[in-house]
Amino acid sequence: MAPSRESRRTVFRQIAQLSSVDWPTYESSPLFDRSSLSALESDVRLVAETWFQHDDHETVKPFVRAVPLAYVQFDAHDRYAGSTSYQMETLFRLFLLKECHGWDHETALVEYLTQHPDLCDQLGLESVPNQSTLWRSWHHRFTAELQDTVQTVARTILIKAQNAGVSVPREPDRQTPRHGDEHTESDPDNQIILNQAETVTERVSDVAFPAFSLDRGEGCEIHENAYWDLQTYLGLRENLAVNEGARSFIHESNRKRTPLGHAHREHVRNLSIEQIRKMYRQAVSRLLDRVAETEEFFRAGIVAIDITEGDPFTGDRAGHEDEIIGTKEKTDEYAYQWATVQLVGNAVPIVLDARPVRKGDTRKEIVKDLLDSAEAAVHVDNVLMDREFDSQHILEMLSQRGLSYVVPKRMQTSEKAQAKRLLKKGKDRYETDRKLHLGDNEWHSTTLIYRRKEDSEHTDHQQYSVFMTNRKSGLLTEYGYRWEIESGYKSIKRFMGATTSKDFGLRFFYFAFACLLYSIWRAVDLLVQVQLTGEYEHSPIVTADNTLTLVKKETGIG
After folding, report:
1. pTM of full prediction above 0.70
2. Ranges of residues in the chain whose predicted pLDDT is under 50
3. CA distance linking residue 468 with residue 455, whole number of Å
4. 86 close to 45: Cβ distance less than 8 angstroms
5. Structural domain boundaries of the chain?
6. Which is a Pfam family this sequence falls into (predicted)?
7. C-beta neighbour count of 510 within 10 angstroms
8. Which residues of 435-472 are buried (b: 16+ CB within 10 A; e: fewer)?
9. Quick check: helix, strand or coil at residue 352?
10. DSSP 8-state secondary structure symbol assigned to residue 476
11. Is residue 297 within 8 Å of 527, Cβ to Cβ?
């Protein structure tokens, strides 16, 4: 069947409901914009995977015609300055079609368009471009980067279609370079991935979970691993509380004895915050040692520090005012808050440490605490944080530790005035050195970088963002990596068991254990990718659900 309005609507509704991704990608970070080719490639990868899963989508051509491109700004990749007969978006689709078919010359594309006038109408072509026009457009109008994107996107479309059982006009190249001339399959099918993931998950679980202990003494009838099994089980079910989960767990587990809900809660409540954090750091250390066996793991580089909060707390918080605190948005709501430090950038995004946030905790204390843990586990070069950590004392501490940083700055009167001047002059970027007062005639030297966001909804000085850094401005491009911690939080919260308890330790344990499950997932994905392809790409090929299901299987749940 041909794609219909309803089938297209179904595809994009499914994409909108994905909790672990932001689409389109350019909206996920202030450092991406509508001209970013890497964002375009990521978007096509996501849409193609969902599109070809639909039963009505049986060929590649309709996808080439329908893939969303209206938001993409091709001007930055158009080497022609004057008026032209064909829009860049239309030409992009034409060359995408050519690449999907593997035609070496434009003549084949011209013949195909001539034989398919319906496609020309759908692409808005009043006439078929001649061969010389297409040749000049590709060789003289498209930049080399845009040509690479066409080839990358076409390969992605063919692989995603073939993986979904859709017929393709040519066999896609599934080989990627590895160690010189060696090659290996880069996009293995789902069954191969699952088979490999099962083996890897067993090894990773055996590494991470032994770090956790309830210290119950000897002679207990219920094995301690049953408690971690139950906690993992809660993470597999959305909004599943421990009492109901324990009852279901009895039937789904292959263990002879499993803990009851109240017993599970009681043992977890006996754990102090420091005990939980110590066990978590030990588990992550063991996990890092395991993934460090691969040369693709970067045990150094960039970390992001951030604070997340639970759902707004609507009950009576009397006696818990220091733990159930105001939200970050300064509303009249209250919530539990947790802080984490996570590897980002080229490294596998493992959460290195987590801690609760209490009333009275300063941002400097939080950053120092988490950095101490991070630097004990990996070598840290750069630190990324959001504007709630905009403090000269935090920045000075980072510099004293020999670390680079990028932090957005809250716009005060002077920054607003500068942004207005830049807007009046039509400048998109501006750098200036600034000294921030530390007190007692001491100062911290930093660089302010003003950056204008092209697709901003604002028309005044609010189009500009201001960043602070103590290194060259090129480091600013790395700030986009900080958004990985935001997307990570979405998955982490999915892995948390539900509870209405006000017990602070229990609440934190649920969050920390979810961070561990997330880190296990990303570690398993890295190991599977390396074993199957010889490389590591940041986009997971092993799903979170598959990993947790395998963890469930390996830890004793039937």
Report:
1. no
2. 20, 29-31, 174-186, 555-558
3. 22
4. no
5. 5-177, 190-272+494-554
6. DDE_Tnp_1
7. 24
8. ebeeeeeeebebbbbbbbbeeeeeeebebbbbbbbbbe
9. strand
10. G
11. no
